[in-house]
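Lecture 7 notes: from sequence to structure.

We start with a single chain of 245 residues. Read the sequence below before looking at the structure.
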Amino acid sequence: MRNLSFRPRTVSRLIAVTAIAAVLAACGSDNDDELPPPPAPPPPPAPVDVSYEVTVTNLTNAQPLSPVAVILHTEGQLWTLGEPASVELEQMAEGGDNSGLRGLAVVQAEASGAGPIGPANQETITVTIQDTTDALLSVATMLVNTNDAFTGLNAYSLAELAVGDSWTTTTRAYDSGTEANTEAAGTMPGPADGGEGFNAERDDVDFVGAHSGVVSADDGLMGSTLTVQHRFDNPVVRITVTRTE
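Now the structure, written as tokens:
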């Protein structure tokens, strides 16, 4: 039988290798326990408010304006000339109720005037949107001593308006085409009549167009409750938009 034996040098090498392996294993275990947790992701940036002041001035002689709707959106228009008015526009143009327009699906931010704006008066309305500097601005209000006349601004781009910049325009009167312009008693919601506002039945041309103006009883329209003082010339409103932040 062969006598197996290890040389001293071989034994020393085995002991050394074993010791190193043990140390490495121990170090590896310690390192795993001591690894720092991964860094937390940075918090999302705080939203930035983009605000506008919209000043609406009534330029008419005797046509109060219904509470003004100020709307910010990124697509669509509130009306299209030659096309039927939406029900929401009809409600505003016949009765002065702007809630339907302000609740449209395209609306991203909106505000309403506090109340009617009398002739030669004005109101400034603030509207704020977050993280959007290229919104479209629409403004809408009814001339309440009419059957369905309205005015406003339709999808104006605010992309070029920097903080502190202002822009001014004037607007004409439109006819929603949903109610005949009879000027008859009981058909207009304004103080000249105090009659009906919105009526779902459409008895006019059923498309949005330029308003031909008030005729009045003084000018021979039989049955009209309006007088010559309720007539208006274009433009009917001045709008100034200022970006404040």
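The radius of gyration is 36 Å. Keep this in mind for problem set 3.
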